[in-house]
Amino acid sequence: MRFYPAFDAKQLIQDMPMATALMGVPTFYSRLLNDPNFTKSVTENMRLFVSGSAPLLIETHDRKHAPLRVGQRAASNRNA
Questions:
Q1: Rounded to the nearest 10 degrees, how much is the dihedral formed by the CA atoms of 39, 42, 45, 48?
Q2: How far is CA 39 from CA 27, 35, 52, 80, in A?
Q3: What pTM was estimated for this model as a whole?
Q4: What are the 10-residue block averages of pLDDT along the chain, 80 residues in total?
Q5: Which of 9, 12, 13, 14 has the fewest CB atoms in 10 Å of its CB?
Q6: Angle 7-41-63 (CA atoms, 0-180°, nearest 5)?
């Protein structure tokens, strides 16, 4: 388990291949998705992305799942 003092996309992307889970606030995911180095290969070992503290926008959720296809969605607040 690693704790970071502040959000650092470069450091997260560097460490992510050694991780299986990431817990963060929705803005973390938005910022990662906007980084060109955040690719499917970076997330191959990931089993769980947890978003908390604030609602995750549907648009961010859809962007996260569509291009990466990291895994199956365990839970969703959508009826689709």
A1: -60
A2: 17, 9, 22, 26
A3: 0.66
A4: 90 94 88 91 89 77 57 48
A5: 14
A6: 65
C-beta of residue 60 within 8 angstroms of C-beta of residue 29: yes
56: nearest Cα among 23, 79, 80, 14: 23
Q: How many residues in total does the chain contain? A: 80
Q: Quote the CA–CA distance of 21 and 51 in Å, as a whole number.
A: 11
What the block records as the tokens of 9 is 């996309």
Contacts of 74 (CB under 8 A, 6+ apart): 48
Question: 32-49 in b/e burial notation, b at 16+ Cβ within 10 A?
Answer: beeeeebeeebbeebeeb
Contacts of 64 (CB under 8 A, 6+ apart): 29, 33, 49, 70
